[in-house]
Amino acid sequence: MWAYGCGVISSGVPASGRWPLVIAGILLAGPLICATSQAVNDWYDRDVDAINEPNRPIPSGRLPGRWGFGIALGWTALSLLVASALGPWGLGAAVLGLALAWAYSAPPLRLKRNGWWGNAAVGACYEGLPWFTGAAVMAAARPDWRVLVLAALYSVGAHGIMTLNDFKSVEGDRRMGIASLPASLGVDKAARLACVVMIVPQFAVIAMLAAMGQPVHAAFVALLLFAQFVLMVPLLENPRERAPWYNATGTSLYVIGMLVAAFALRQTVLEVP
Question: Which residues, by range, are in coiled-coil regions (predicted)?
Answer without folding.
Answer: none
